[in-house]
Amino acid sequence: MEEISIYQVIIILVIVSALFVQQVLLKANKFKKVRYTRNQRLGFAIASAFPILAFSYISNNPVLIPFAVAMGSLVYFKENWYALKKKELGRGDVRNVR
């Protein structure tokens, strides 16, 4: 059995912390529901599946191909997504004044 690399630990910690921050922001109502068009969802699906397909080709690992296809199809067929809410500019905010 191989030892776990420090790079693997860093990647796992980044993923876990991102999921934790996402849950905190969801509970604080900082997200809004967003519906993307079919073309946007297709672009997201291709962008998310292509690196895994490329890695399966480079590493000669055909087991990753069904995983990439499944991930791309899940991204494409999911209709409701969440995005961060933009801050509303108040009356005293002078950032957009010329």
What is the domain total for the residues?
A: 2
Q: Radius of gyration from the CA trace? A: 19 Å
Average pLDDT score: 88
Strand order across the largest sheet:
1-2
Shape type: flat
> Whole-Å distance between the termini?
64 Å
List the helices and strands and how they pair.
Elements: H1 6-27, E1 31-35, H2 38-58, H3 64-77, E2 80-84
Antiparallel strand pairs: 1-2
Keywords: Membrane, Transmembrane, Transmembrane helix
Transmembrane segments: 6-26, 42-58, 64-81
Question: Could you please describe the fold and organization of this structure?
Answer:
Keywords: Membrane, Transmembrane, Transmembrane helix. This protein has helices at about 5-25, 40-60, 65-75, and strands spanning about 30-35, 80-85. With about 100 residues, it is mostly helical. The protein has 2 domains: about 1-30; about 35-85. Strands 1-2 form a two-stranded antiparallel ribbon. α2 (about 40-60) packs antiparallel against α3.
Name some characteristics of this structure:
98 residues, mainly alpha, 2 strands
Précis, in short:
By secondary structure, the protein is mostly helical. It has 3 helices and 2 strands, in the order H-E-H-H-E.
